[in-house]
Amino acid sequence: MANVKLILVESIHRLGEAGDLVSVKPGFARNFLLPQGKALLATESRVKEFEHKRRIAEEKAAREQKDLQAVKQRLEALKIEIGARAGESGKLFGSVTAAQIADKIAAAGLAVDRRRIDLREPIKEVGAHKVTVRLLRELTATLSVHVVAEAGPPPEEEETPEEAADDRRGRRRRRDEDDDDDDEERTTGEDSAPRE
Description:
The protein has helices at about 25-35, 45-75, 100-105, 160-190, and strands spanning about 5-10, 20-25, 40, 80-85, 90-95, 115-120, 125, 125-135, 140-150. By secondary structure, the chain is of the alpha+beta class. The mean pLDDT is about 80.
């Protein structure tokens, strides 16, 4: 029996991409591809229609590629500076996220979805970092992000040993007083409770 010619409506592993003209065994076409809506019989009019749609899709993809190339150049020329609280050693309190980077890109006049910003690991140190932005599957831009330290928490004053001992005594004294109050409440609470 002769093979059947079909036009794939969607990509099928080891067979072809959507829009491809393929030749398959009649049983595969009749029992799987056609009932599942994964392919259409390749008539002359359908072949012409799919070729026309493919040309339109390729032209659209080429225009998008050209536009995204311009966006890529603008992103790579952009220098982003993000301020974050950091300690003396340069470690951040928290991290710089893709959402923060996306906000800075938007402030520069470019719209990039935060999910397209590829942070392998969160940025947790002050300094210059390279971040990848996925524009298309095969088109990526590398962005320079500089993290600068903002004022960190105020330095804590160290207590002298005498102050620490006084503080511990004060806490101990307050705890003892609270325990005495609890004992009095328990004893008065038991006596005043009505008996049945």
